[in-house]
Amino acid sequence: MLIRPRLTDYHGVTLAQGDADFAIPFFDEDIPLYVDPFLMWRSPSQQDIALHGALLNAFNHLGQLALNGGEDEAIKALVAASECDEVGLGSSRTRRGKRIGQAKAQEILAIFRRIPRYATHGLSHIEELQFFVEGISKDRISDFACSFLKSFLIDFTIDQCNRLGIPLEPMTVANVWDPRSRSFIDVATTLPIDPTDNRPLLLVPKRWLRFVPWISYEEYFEKHCPQDEISHEPENLTRVEVLHYNRDNYGVVAAYIESKERAFQDAANDPLFSQIPVRSARGKLAQIKKLATGKTDGADTKYENAVGQLLPSLLYPNLDFAQVQARTDSGVSIRDLIFYNTQRDPFLKQIYADYGSRQVTFEMKNVATIERTHVDQVNRYMAEELGRFGVFVTRHPLKAAMFKRTIDLWSGQRKVIVTLTDADLEQMVEVFDSKQRDPLDVIAKKYAEFRRACP
């Protein structure tokens, strides 16, 4: 069974996150990123600019609708738009969010009456809601954007799945904004599904995603908000007090928005995974080399944590990190690093073809000597789904008897266990620093040495 499968892995599509145009969704939790509409506004793509305009037109229409006697209809639409579970973005562990209530929708629509600029011209960026309405932040802004642009996301998802061979299932998608009727409608279409509960999935372009919106309340509060003017005790200033001030002093917010627009060239999407700097990699290596073997003073946990932070950066983007997994074998607690095999590299294609390795497991052992029980534990873990290629990450090379045992495993079951030592990690960091070669080459070299020893 695959560990933490993504949509692509479940359907046998070997695609690195770095090579995908979209954020590859997980089945068990949200992706901790958010759609930032500003990235559409600043995009050189005419399509993205038009989508940003469509998003604003839809949202501002609801504001005008409320001003002109259609508040109930506007509230209903705003509540429907406030959650978009199909995209799986945010911080939920269940991929299910909660919509806003009618009172919060009324509070949002009220800014079109309270602020003259919005009554006549509407919002320029829906992110501006953060400065006037309590409880509206990056996750809600992202959901609003996805809901009003759901029709585009459906088409984008179908196109990406057709290119990759991901199967689509017929279904009816609720709450798709129709710009002709200016209302949400149900649409019959085909989409990929989450096999755990048969819910539809929507893919989102990576180019729209950030951890924090470019237009951010937190940055506004820290650098632009006249805190002394609002309160004699700015250190105790609450968000509610700031929001009340903003409603009566729109010019301060407008000045901040204009400053962010002028700096638009600095706005960029955030990657789903960021490698640690070379200096940090060297620091982790130094920490590992200073640790004693065994469990004294928590050395085993410190070793696992340091290796767990180092290897994902060294191996990216050839291996996408899946998770740190804790498991128990014969009463022994074991921590593994699990990676998706993207097959981006000829070596990775080889271990997939020869050993069925859809994922690659690195078992961390802060021991002076690898023993027979350790080898047997890895042997039991290497199954058809995960493949028959595993890696020990430990302090020293295997003793002759244990190395022979790994050779015997290959001879009898065609299973491979290679070993990365402190010296190998040091070489990987050196390669990572020089950028002349790929740290994965060190593992490929260790595999070549292992195969030369096989009969």
Question: Explain this structure to me?
Answer:
- With 455 residues, this protein is α+β, with helices and mostly antiparallel strands.
- Helices cover 46% and strands 15% of the residues.
- It has 19 helices and eleven strands.
- It has a five-stranded mixed sheet, sandwiched between helices.
- Helix 3 (46-67) crosses helix 5 (102-114), helix 13 (278-290) runs antiparallel to helix 14 and helix 13 (278-290) runs antiparallel to helix 18.
- The chain is elongated, with a radius of gyration of 26 Å.
- The relative contact order is 0.10.
Topology at a glance:
Elements (H helix, E strand, L loop, with lengths): L6 H4 L23 E2 L2 H4 L4 H22 L3 H11 L20 H13 L1 H6 L16 H11 L1 H15 L4 E10 L4 E9 L1 E2 L4 E2 L8 E2 L6 H7 L3 H4 L8 H10 L1 H13 L15 H13 L8 H17 L3 E11 L2 E10 L4 H10 L3 E7 L6 H10 L7 E6 L5 H14 L2 E5 L1 H13 L5 H14 L2
Parallel strand pairs: 9-10, 10-11
Antiparallel strand pairs: 1-6, 2-3, 4-5, 7-8, 8-9
Helix pairs in contact: 3-4, 3-5, 4-5, 13-14, 13-18
